[in-house]
UniProtKB/TrEMBL annotation:
Residues 14-191 form the Metallo-beta-lactamase domain. This is Uncharacterized protein. It comes from the Archaea. InterPro entries: Beta_Casp (IPR022712), MBL (IPR050698), Metallo-B-lactamas (IPR001279), RibonucZ/Hydroxyglut_hydro (IPR036866), RMMBL (IPR011108). It comes from Methanofervidicoccus abyssi. GO terms for molecular function: exonuclease activity; metal ion binding; RNA endonuclease activity. CDD domains: TTHA0252-CPSF-like_MBL-fold. Its cofactor is Zn(2+).
Length: 421
C-alpha cells in the first residue's frame, strides 16, 4: 500500500517536502529549505526516482541542489526561476555552490501545464496552473489508477500578472492542500482595496518628499507591485517619481517577460501592445540616497539579507517609510519592524527607526474564503492531508474540511508516515 512521508512544511511554512512511496517507486513532492534558518529536510536521496517541483519559491525548491537527485520535473518557467534563486542562495548562505547547482540543472526535465508524463513504472504526472507565481503548479498524480492532487501554493483569485488556479480536475482520491490562510480569521481585503492602500501610502510619503522602501520576494510579489505602481502612475493617480529595483528582481522579471503566454491574458495583451509594465524601473544606484523622493523595491521580503538591508538606514529619517508587503516570519528583521522595533541592526551599526512602518499584505496565496471556494470547485476527495501553514492554520483548515466534507482529514506533524489512500 502506498505511503506518504512528511519531511517538512508541516505545521510550518518553509521546507515543504513530501515523499510518496509505492511498491515500485519513490518520489518527492517539493524539496524546500527554510530560507530564514537555512535548514533543509532530512532525506536520503538514494532511492528517490524523481523530485516534482510545484514552484520556484525557496520553501519548495531551495534544498534541491543539496542532494544528488536522478531526475527533477518542473514547468519551464520554474526551471529558469529556480536557477536565479539557487544562485542567490549559494551567494548568501553557502549551503551549496555552482557545482551542486549545475548537477541539479543537468537532471531537470521541464513540462507544460496539462502535459501527461509517465515518470516511473506506476506513476503518471500532470501539472496544473496554481495561480500563485509564474510557472507555479498543482501536481496531479495517477498511481496505478488512484488519483492524488498536491495543490502546492494556490491562489484561486486572478491577479494582475496571473490567471486563477486551474480547478478543472476530474477525480481525486487523496488531496494534499496548503493552509497558509487556513483559519476562518484569515480573511483578506480584495486586491483592489490593497492596491489603493498601497498607492495612498506611497503618495503620502512622496508628498512629504520622502522615500518609500518596499521589500519583496524576487518572484511574484516584486512583479505584482511593479505592475500596480505602473498602472497608477500611467493613469495619473500616482505622481511619477523614480522607481528603483535591486537584487535578483532584475533577472526574475526578465523571466516573467519571456514567458508572457504563461501570464494573465490581460497582461499578455499589454505586453503585445508593446508596453512593458516593468520597463519604467531603474537599477538602484547611489542616486537613491540623494534628496529626491523615490520608491525602492528590493529583496529580501522579510529583510533577512539581500540588498534591501543597505536601504534601511533611510529609516532614520521620519519622512521615509517602509511598506512590508507580505507575511513576516518569526525571528526576522521584518517581523521586528512590524512589531514596532525602535532600533534595528542590519549591519554593525544600530539604526534608529524614525520612519513609518506599514504592512499591506499582497499575498500570492488565496485567503480563507478563497481556499473554501477552491475546495468547492474541485471534486470531493476521499482523504485529505493539510500542510504548509502554521499549526493553528493547518489544524483549523483540517477541522473545517473534516466537518464539511466528512472525509478523514489530517494535519500531520513533520516525520509522520501515513497510508496515502
Ligand atoms: Zn510559494
Ligand atoms: Zn510556500
Amino acid at each position: 500500500m502506498p505511503v506518504v512521508r512528511f519531511h517538512g512544511g508541516c505545521h510550518q511554512i518553509g521546507m515543504s517536502c513530501i515523499e510518496i512511496d509505492t511498491k515500485k517507486s519513490r518520489i518527492l513532492l517539493d524539496c524546500g529549505m527554510d530560507p530564514n534558518k537555512n535548514t533543509v529536510p532530512n532525506i536520503d536521496p538514494k532511492d528517490i526516482d524523481a523530485v516534482l517541483v510545484s514552484h520556484a519559491h525557496l520553501d519548495h525548491c531551495g534544498a534541491i541542489p543539496c542532494f544528488n537527485f536522478k531526475k527533477i520535473y518542473c514547468t519551464t518557467p520554474s526551471a529558469d526561476l529556480m536557477y536565479i534563486l539557487w544562485k542567490d542562495v549559494s551567494k548568501l548562505s553557502k549551503i551549496y555552490g555552482e557545482k551542486e547547482i549545475k548537477r541539479a540543472l543537468d537532471v531537470i526535465e521541464t513540462v507544460n501545464y496539462r502535459e501527461k508524463k509517465k515518470i516511473t513504472e506506476d506513476i503518471t504526472m500532470e501539472m496544473y496552473d496554481a495561480g500563485h507565481i509564474l510557472g507555479s503548479s498543482s501536481i496531479y498524480l495517477d498511481i496505478d489508477g488512484k488519483k492524488v492532487l498536491y495543490t502546492g501554493d494556490i491562489n484561486e483569485r486572478e491577479t494582475r500578472t496571473l490567471k486563477p488556479a486551474d480547478t478543472d480536475i476530474e477525480e481525486i482520491d487523496t488531496l494534499i492542500i496548503e493552509s497558509t490562510y487556513g483559519s476562518p480569521l484569515d480573511i483578506k481585503p480584495a486586491r483592489k482595496t490593497l492596491e489603493r492602500q498601497l498607492i495612498e501610502e506611497i503618495s503620502s510619503t512622496i508628498e512629504k518628499k520622502g522615500k518609500v522602501i518596499i521589500p519583496v520576494f524576487a518572484v511574484g510579489r516584486a512583479q505584482e507591485i511593479m505592475c500596480v505602481i505602473y498602472h497608477y502612475m500611467n493613469s495619473g493617480a500616482l505622481e511619477e517619481v523614480p522607481v528603483y529595483v535591486d537584487g535578483s528582481i532584475i533577472h526574475t522579471t526578465g523571466v516573467y517577460l519571456s514567458y508572457s503566454h504563461w501570464l494573465n491574458p490581460k497582461m499578455k495583451r499589454i505586453l503585445e501592445c508593446g508596453q512593458n509594465p516593468f520597463g519604467y524601473v531603474k537599477k538602484a544606484d547611489s542616486s537613491v540616497f540623494n534628496e529626491d523622493p523615490c520608491i525602492i523595491i528590493s529583496t529580501s521580503g522579510m529583510l533577512q539579507g539581500g540588498p534591501v538591508l543597505q536601504y534601511l538606514k533611510l529609516l532614520k529619517y521620519p519622512t521615509n517609510k517602509i511598506i512590508l508587503t507580505g507575511y513576516q516570519a518569526e525571528d526576522t528583521l521584518g517581523r521586528a519592524l512590524e512589531e514596532g522595533a525602535k532600533v534595528i541592526k542590519p549591519f554593525k551599526n544600530e539604526i534608529p527607526v524614525r520612519g513609518e512602518v506599514v504592512k499591506i499584505e499582497f499575498s500570492a496565496h488565496g485567503d480563507y474564503n478563497s481556499l473554501i471556494r477552491y475546495l468547492k470547485k474541485i471534486p470531493t476527495p476521499n482523504k485529505v492531508f493539510v500542510v504548509h501553514g502554521e499549526k493553528y492554520q493547518s489544524l483549523s483548515l483540517a477541522m473545517t474540511i473534516w466537518k464539511s466534507l466528512k472525509v478523514p482529514t489530517f494535519a500531520p506533524p513533520v516525520g509522520s508516515v501515513l497510508p496515502l489512500f
